């Protein structure tokens, strides 16, 4: 696997760790590719019955690495955001959707920060256990963008539309308690990794056929129009990347100043 993503196994439970702690597991291209590769490698493993998804160091994932944005935009621009490379998804969407599509249940252990792309990745899990002091944000609006890593599919499973709109429009940070109350987090625990591993072990002790069938059934009956939603995400993002106001959002953020947008 990529050195950005580490898989460890304890019997039938696999733990996937985002491993770029010096950058709070911020997403660059190798990290994105490593996450997708990790999910693909586990998807075919009948001996793995449950998966824990976590981040090394002081954060789960602080979102997109701003310094990697030009490379990511170049990669996306060459293929086009709307080009499907991973089933119904593009590469970026697969970082979150691959966990939702995994046949095994996935429990995310969240601590520190889950911002932007990191927030969307955790939504791909079946359950999310968060430390009480975790901070969250749908941060794409800060950079003049929209959530485009499966968020428009995954958020709608969990939260009311007005909450999704508020958090997406404002890009504000919110607490673990708010995340739980709004439906984004399943439960809080002072040791989210230990709790996630306990849940995974409990699930792994059940019939793997029944558990896989249950996940497939729940997913099938709660989702409509996934492919269409993912394309809409990509189309919206494609119109924003590289535009003057989007670039101004990035520059203002990097320079720690107020942005000046054009009408």
Q: What distance separates the N and C termini?
A: 45 Å
Q: Share of helix among residues?
A: 40-55%
The top-level CATH class is Alpha Beta
User: Regarding quaternary structure, how should these chains be classified?
Assistant: single chain
Strand percentage, roughly?
5-15%
Strand line-up in the sheet with most strands: 1-2-3-4-6-9
Overall average pLDDT: 92
Number of contiguous helices:
11
Number of distinct beta strands: 9
CATH superfamily: 2-enoyl-CoA Hydratase, Chain A, domain 1
Reported CATH architecture = Alpha-Beta Complex
Main sheet summary: 6 strands, mixed
CATH topology: 2-enoyl-CoA Hydratase, Chain A, domain 1
Could you state the order of secondary-structure elements as H and E? EEHEHHEEHEEHHEHEHHHH
Secondary structure topology:
Layout: E1 5-10, E2 13-18, H1 29-43, E3 50-55, H2 69-79, H3 91-101, E4 106-110, E5 113-115, H4 117-123, E6 127-130, E7 135-137, H5 151-158, H6 161-170, E8 173-175, H7 176-182, E9 187-188, H8 192-204, H9 208-222, H10 226-240, H11 244-255
Parallel strand pairs: 2-3, 3-4, 4-6, 5-7, 6-9
Antiparallel strand pairs: 1-2, 7-8
Description:
The protein is an alpha/beta fold and 263 residues long. The protein has a single domain, classed as 2-enoyl-CoA Hydratase, Chain A, domain 1 (Alpha-Beta Complex), CATH 3.90.226. The chain is built from eleven helices and nine strands. The strands form two sheets. The chain has a six-stranded mixed sheet, sandwiched between helices. A hairpin with a 2-residue loop joins β1 and β2. α1 runs parallel beside α3 and α3 packs parallel to α4.
């Amino acid at each position: 696997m990529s050195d950005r993503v580490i898989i460890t196994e304890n019997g039938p439970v696999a733990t996937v760790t985002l491993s770029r702690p010096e950058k709070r597991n911020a997403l660059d291209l190798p990290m994105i590719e490593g996450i997708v590769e990790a999910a693909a490698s586990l998807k075919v493993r009948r001996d793995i019955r449950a998966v824990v998804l976590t981040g090394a160091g002081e954060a789960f994932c602080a979102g997109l690495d701003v310094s990697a944005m030009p490379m990511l935009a170049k990669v996306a621009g060459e293929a086009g955001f709307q080009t499907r490379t991973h089933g119904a998804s593009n590469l970026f969407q697969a970082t979150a959707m691959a966990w939702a599509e995994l046949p095994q249940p996935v429990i995310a252990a969240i601590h520190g920060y889950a911002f932007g792309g990191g927030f969307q990745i955790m939504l791909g899990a079946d359950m999310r256990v968060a430390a009480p002091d975790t901070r969250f944000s749908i941060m794409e609006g800060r950079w003049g963008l929209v959530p485009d890593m499966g968020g428009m599919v995954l958020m709608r499973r969990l939260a009311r539309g007005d909450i999704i709109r508020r958090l997406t429009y404002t890009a504000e940070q919110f607490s673990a308690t708010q995340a739980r109350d709004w439906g984004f987090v399943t439960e809080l625990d002072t040791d989210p990794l230990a709790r996630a591993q306990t849940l995974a072990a409990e699930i792994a002790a059940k019939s793997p056929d029944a558990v896989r069938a249950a996940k497939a059934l729940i997913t099938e009956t709660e989702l409509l129009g996934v492919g269409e939603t993912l394309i809409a995400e990509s189309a919206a993002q494609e119109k924003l990347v590289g535009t003057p106001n989007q670039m101004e959002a990035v520059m203002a953020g990097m320079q720690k100043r107020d942005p000046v947008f054009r009408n």
